[in-house]
Amino acid sequence: MTKHKNTTKQTFIKGAMILLAAGIINRLLGFVPRIALPRIMGAEGVGLYQLSYPFLTVMLTIITGGIPLAVAKWIAEAESQGDSARVKYIFRTAMGLVALLGVIMTGVMLLGAKWITTHILPDARVYQTFLVMTPMLMIIGLSSVYRGYFQGKQNMIPTAVSQIVETVLRIIASLTFAYLFLPYGLEWASAGAMLGAVIGEIGGLAVLLWKYYRDRPSTKQTVEKPGQVNSEKNIPVLRRLLGLSIPVTGSRLIGSFSYLLESILTARSLAAAGIATGLATAQYGALQGMIVPLLLLPTALTYSLAVSLVPSLSEAAARGDHALIHKRLHQSMRLALVSGAPFVVIMFLFAEPICRMLYNHADIAPMLQLISTVGIFIYLQAPLQAALQALNKPGTALINTLIGAIVKLVLIVQLASDPEYGINGALIAICVNIVLVTLLHAISVLKFIGFHMKLLDFVKVGAAMVIMGAAAQFTMNQQPLPAEWINLLLACAASAVIYLLLMVIMKIIDRHDMVRIPLFGNWFK
Fold first, then answer.
1. Closest residue by Cα to residue 280 from 425, 385, 171, 146
2. CA-to-CA distance for 266 and 415, rounded, in angstroms?
3. Which residues lie closer than 8 Å to 220 by C-beta, 6 or more apart?
4. Strand, coil or helix: what is 421?
C-alpha cells in the first residue's frame, strides 16, 4: 500500500498544476461549442440551453452539496494517519447518501417537468431540454464522490483525465445532435445539445470507475484488518459527513438558488422593461453562454487551486501547522492574481474584436468590457472560499454568499426592469455580487487566521497590467499583419511576454515558480 500511495499522491502545487493543465485543455476545447452552437441555433437557441442549467444546478447542489468536499477533507486526514479502513468507510457512506438523494431528485424532476418549465422557468420551450438533462443528476452525483475520493488521496490525475474525456465527448455529441435536431425547431436543437452533455458526463464517470476499480485490489489488502474495521464502525461517519456537508450545501444552495432566481428575474425584469420573451431569452443566452464563459476562462487555474487547497489545508490543520496554511494560501492567491490579471486587460481592451471573431456578435462586446472590470475578484474568490471550507468555517462562507445573493437579486429587479439599463442592469448586479462576496471572504480569512495578501503585490501587478495594456494596444494599432485575428494574437502574445518579464523583474514570480509548470518547467531548471 505504501508503494502504491507514494506513486499516486501529488504535492499541493503538482496536483494543482495537473488540474490546471486539464482545466486549460477543457476551457479551450469548451469554446468549440461556445463558438459553434450560436452559429448552429443562434443566441435564442443558446438561451434555451442555458435556461435549463440553473434548475439542474439547484438539484445537483441538493444531491452533492458539500459531500465531495467532506470526502476529500476526511480522506486526506485519514490518509495522513494511515487509516485505510476509515477511508473505505467514508467513501461507501458518501456514495450511499448521494445515490439515495439522486434517485429522489431525479423522480422529482421527471414528475414535475411540465409544471416546472411552465410555471417556474421563464420560457416553456425549455421542456424538451429539461427532460433530456435529468439523467445528469445521478451521473454527476456519483462522479463527484469519486472525484472527492481521489482528491482526498491527493491524486488529481483521475479527475483531470475524466474532465478531458467528458469535454471531448460533450463537444462531439452536442454539436452533432444540435445540428441533427435543428430542423424540428430551436427547442429540439437545444435538447440535442443537452443530450451531448449527458453523453459527456457518462464518459467522465466511466473513466473514474475504471481508475477506482483498477486500484481497488491494493486498497482492499489494507482495509480488511479486523481491528481497523471494528473501530471504524463505532465512528458516526454519516453524522459527521452531514455535519460538514450541510453548511457547505447551504452555501452552495444559496449560490444555486441565486443562479436560478437570476435567470428567472432577469427574464421577467427584461419583460417589464418592454423586451419580448424571445429577445430576452437571446440576451440571457448571450450573457451566460458567451460572455460569462470568457470571463471564467482563467478559473481553470483558480478551480485547480481550490480543489488542491482543501485536502492540503485540511492535512496541515490536522497537524496544527499554521505556517504551512499561510504558505499554501499565499501560493494560491498569488497564482490566481498573477494568472488572472492579463486576461482582464485583454478582455477589456479587445472586447469588440473578440466577440466578433468568436461569436459573430460584436453587439455583445460592451457586456464583456463591463464584466471584465471585476475579473480579478472572481479569480481570487475560489481560493478564499476553499480556505474557509477547509478550515471548518463553511457557515461563514454560507453567510457571505447569502449576503451577496440578496444584493444581486435586488439589484437585478431594480436595474434590469429599467429600460435605460436592460440586460446591463443584470450585468451590473452580477459585478456587485462578485466584488462583495470576494471582499467578505477575504475579511473572514483575515479574521480567522490572520492571512492577507501584501498590498505591494497588488500595486506591482496593477502597474504591470497598465504597461501590458499599453503594449497590446500599440501592437494592435500598428496592424503589422494583414489579418485582424493574427494581429490580435500577436498583440496578446507580445503583451503577455512583457507582462511575464515584469513579473520576474518585480519578483512576483521566480524560477522556482516556472519550474512547476507542466511540460515547460524543465526549461527553467
1. 425
2. 10
3. none
4. coil
CB atoms near residue 403 (< 10 Å): 15
- C-alpha dist (Å) from residue 141 to 105, 133, 202, 315: 11, 13, 11, 25
Query: What residue has cell string 424538451?
Result: 128
237-266: burial string, b at 16+ Cβ within 10 Å, e else? beeebbebbbbbbbbbbbbbbbbbbbbbbb
Q: What is the pLDDT of residue 311?
A: 65
Contact predicate 452/442, CB 8 Å: yes
Burial of 356 (0-12, 13-18, 19+ CB in 10 A): middle
Q: How far is CA 229 from the centre of its chain?
A: 36
Cell readout for 77 is 486526514
Give CA–CA dist 362/159, Å, rounded: 36
The amino acid that residue 511 corresponds to is R
What is the residue-wise DSSP string for 183-198?
A: GG-HHHHHHHHHHHHH
Q: Which amino acid is at 449?
A: I
Q: What is the rounded distance in angstroms from the CA atom of residue 390 to the CA atom of residue 25? A: 27
For residue 120, give the DSSP letter.
I
- 81 close to 316: Cβ distance less than 8 angstroms: no
Q: 10-residue block means of pLDDT along the chain (525 residues)? A: 45 60 71 81 84 85 79 76 74 86 91 89 87 93 88 78 90 93 91 94 93 66 44 57 71 79 85 80 81 81 63 71 78 83 93 88 89 91 81 81 91 90 89 94 87 83 94 88 86 91 84 53 53
In angstroms, the CA 5 to CA 55 distance is: 39
pLDDT given for residue 237 in this prediction: 66
Burial of 147 (0-12, 13-18, 19+ CB in 10 A): buried
Q: Using an 8 Å Cβ cutoff, are 302 and 334 in contact?
A: no
End-to-end CA distance of the chain: 32
pLDDT at 518: 45
For 193, counting Cβ atoms within 10 Å of its Cβ (0-12 exposed, 13-18 middle, 19+ buried), the class is: buried
pLDDT of residue 511: 60
- Grid coordinates belonging to 194: 443537452
Q: Which residue, among 423, 100, 81, has the nearest Cα to 238 in the 3D structure?
A: 100
- Cell numbers for 410, please give them: 435586488
- Look up the pTM and report it: 0.71
> For residue 279, what are the contacts with CB-CB under 8 A and spacing of at least 6?
270
The residues, ordered by sequence, that sit 6+ positions from 127 with a Cβ below 8 Å of its Cβ are: 113, 114, 117, 118, 187
